[in-house]
Structure formats: C-alpha cells, structure tokens
Amino acid sequence: xxxxxxxxxxxxxxxxxxxxxxxxxxxxxxxxxxxxxxxxxxxxxxxxxxxxxxxxxxxxxxxxxxxxxxxxxxxxxxxxxxxxxxxxxxxxxxxxxxxxxxxxxxxxxxxxxxxxxxxxxxxxxxxxxxxxxxxxxxxxxxxxxxxxxxxxxxxxxxxxxxxxxxxxxxxxxxxxxxxxxxxxxxxxxxxxxxxxxxxxxxxxxxxxxxxxxxxxxxxxxxxxxxxxxxxxxxxxxxxxxxxxxxxxxxxxxxxxxxxxxxxxxxxxxxxxxxxxxxxxxxxxxxxxxxxxxxxxxxxxxxxxxxxxxxxxxxxxxxxxxxxxxxxxxxxxxxxxxxxxxxxxxxxxxxxxxxxxxxxxxxxxxxxxxxxxxxxxxxxxxxxxxxxxxxxxxxxxxxxxxxxxxxxxxxxxxxxxxxxxxxxxxxxxxxxxxxxxxxxxxxxxxxxxxxxxxxxxxxxxxxxxxxxxxxxxxxxxxxxxxxxxxxxxxxxxxxxxxxxxxxxxxxxxxxxxxxxxxxxxxxxxxxxxxxx
Length: 531
Prior knowledge:
The chain has 27 helices and no strands. It is mainly α.
C-alpha cells in the first residue's frame, strides 16, 4: 500500500525521524478495530478511533477526505460508504495497517506489466481521457493505483525503449492541429505554472483539469502531421506534468502519480527523452515527499541513465539535483556532495549551451533552493541558511510558494546548527508567514508542520510560545480547505478548540519577542517593507 502523509498533522507515515503519531499502533491491534476493518465497517472503525484517540471529527475528516458532516453521520450510523474505492481511500488516509487495508479492498486488475509500455496510442488516449473526466467530475478513478513497484517497472521499460516515429493522423473528421493550437497549450501551461508559484498548486487545479478535458482532449483526436503530432505530444507532456505538480501541492497524491506517468508517456510518444526524464524526476521528488527515499533515488538514477546522452547542462543539473535530494534524505553525505558538485559544474555551462525552455527556471534561482533542501536534510544548518538567503535574494517576488518554503526551511535550519537558536527560528518563521498571506499549498503546510515539530523541544522558549499563539490565527496555518492545522503537540489533547481559544485570548497580553524580531528581516535577506 502507498503511504501518504497524514491529512491531519502533515507528517509522513514512515521513513523519517519524525513520523505521524495521530493513531497509536496499539489501537490497530484491538479486537474491535480488527473486526471493523475485516467487515469494512467505517462507522464502527471511526467510533473506536474517537474513543481511543483524541482525534476530533474535523481531524478524522482531514485524514479520510470526507466532510465533517459525513463523519458525524458515519459515527451516528446515519450513513455508510458502499463503494470499495471510497472505503480503501478512507483506510489509506487513516493509515490502517497494510494487511488490513488490503483485506478491505477487493482485488482489482493487476497493474500493466512493464512490457506494455508504451500502450498503443488509442488505448493510452482512452485512459488519459478517462482519468481527466474522473478527476474533473469526482468519479471513481479507473484501474488500480500505481504502486512504487509498478512505477519503477514502467521507468525501466522507458529506459529500454526507443521512441518510434509518430505516424501522421488523417481521419478527415476532426480538423487539423495548427501551430497556434500547440503554442496555446504551452502558453496556458506557463500561466498555470505562474498561478501555482504565486497562490499554491490547489488554486486553479480544477481549471487545469478542465483545460485537459475540454481543450487538449479534442486536439488529440484531431488530424496532424508527424511533426505537428510530436510537438503536440511534447506540449501535452509539459501540461500533464504541471497538472501532476498541482495535484501534489493540493495533497492529491493518488492523482499526482498518475499525471506524472501520463507525462512520461506523452513525452515518449513525442520522442522527447529530456521531457520524459523530467517526468521521472518529478516522480522522484514525489516519492521523496512521501518518505520513499530509496524509490526516489532509483527513479532519479533511471532518469539520468535514459537522458544523459542528450542532456543539456541545465537538464544535467536537474538530474543531479534529483539524485542529491534523495541521497540527502538517505543521509548519504558523500554521495550527495558528489551529486551537488555535478549539479554546480553543469550550471556553469547553461548560458553558453542553452537548453529547452522549461529548464530555464531551474538553471536560475531554483538550484539554490535544492542546495538548501539538501544541506537542511543532512543537518548542516549553516550551509542551508546560506543557500536559502541566496535563493531569497534572486527568486522573483511572484514565486510566493517557493519563497515561503525557503523561509520556513531557513527557520528550521537555525535549529540544526551547533548553537541552535529558537528565537531567530521563530522570528524568521513569523516574518515568512506574514509575507506569505494565504497559500493553498500542501507542500508549504508540510514544511510548517515539520518546523513546529522541530520547535517542540523548545516549547518553554518565549519566542516559540509567541509563534504558536500567532499561528492560531495565521491563514497559512490552515489547510488547503481552510481548516486550522493544529500543532503537533495538540494531537494528544482532547480540547483542541479550547487551546486555540486560550491562545487567542492571550495573544494581546503577552510581550512580543522584539529582540528576536530585530534580526528577522536581516536574516531573511529582505527589507521589512517588501512583500
């Protein structure tokens, strides 16, 4: 079973030092819990969880993906889930043990074997259109969810396969694909990318899926020459990759992986090895986010092996950064250093040798953020701080999401130095959150949750206390659906609403951490008036 981060606390289920502890393991061992799982009785299971854990109805809604009203009806026996897919997703969201969740999910068709990659063009387009319609209208998703093993097998099949010339399509019934059509897809993709940078991936994600369904879908059924077809499929590869990134940032991980695999196939059919490698790097970063570090490294290595012969310096830098991120998560400092050296060497040649349009952003400020992530994960706080400052000094102001991630990363890095500084960490975090406003981004929310976890050992510190009081009202501390994302310590408290109320009442009576905040703008590398 694929383990997603917890929808309540935002922490991974496994693979990291700090993991979700919303539901203690002992709860899953209870006879009544096992009986509820065996009978696929979600209402009975939720009643056990309410009795044995401090989770509120809102918390259970966040974990299962249901509304709070639906959770209330399930608890009271007024509703039930009948669709097996919906039950399986709810169990996955609750983090039910793999063996029990597998029992609760009826057997489905086996994932496609690696030898079937790529699918025939008609079958692939049929499956693509089915996914877009299902996502847009919230229908059950077609077929089984791609497992890490299946993703790896497809990646290896791509590595062994060579693109075949795309045949022209001439059915004489749907019109001809024009250069304007292809250019419009590229321009629209850029617009959605800009929206995600500024407002978060959850913003306008449905509009991106609608564009796939209503605009790109008909074009794929139109006539085209072989050359126009290749350009069309490459544009579709870029657009589906961006749609997958938006799904990931909306917390829809079960959709993100499907869109990234679509991007891989579109790129392959369009004979674009570099775009296909880009899709694999996105899959690698996605696996890294989910705590599947070994899987992330395998995908990054496959991408490198499949594209290195054709890679421009910018693409080589992207491939090296993908490996470095996974190696840092695995705490392999020496191998990570080699990959980062390779990345920086490649970046020195980007201006002279150019590269595809979509790689230009990485060749700029994005590389500094990748360095900061790696040093942060390796526990090298000072070097992480250095690179977050470098990123913040060069990244566009419109990239609010990346700038917010960098600021929260910098705050956390202040706790990963030999002289950990919770005052500065809290001040940097507060300034970052104030400048961020309201971002609809699951990635930002995970960064914030991890920072609050890092600050727990300093709970008695005055600045850390003030930050928690501030977060009780901050928009960024709410999840992408607008609900308050409680701090990790509150998972063990029954009266969470009372805690938030007390924080709000004390907010105007405590002294501000003025000494720490004197340094916050200098630390972030910005002026106080900048937004």
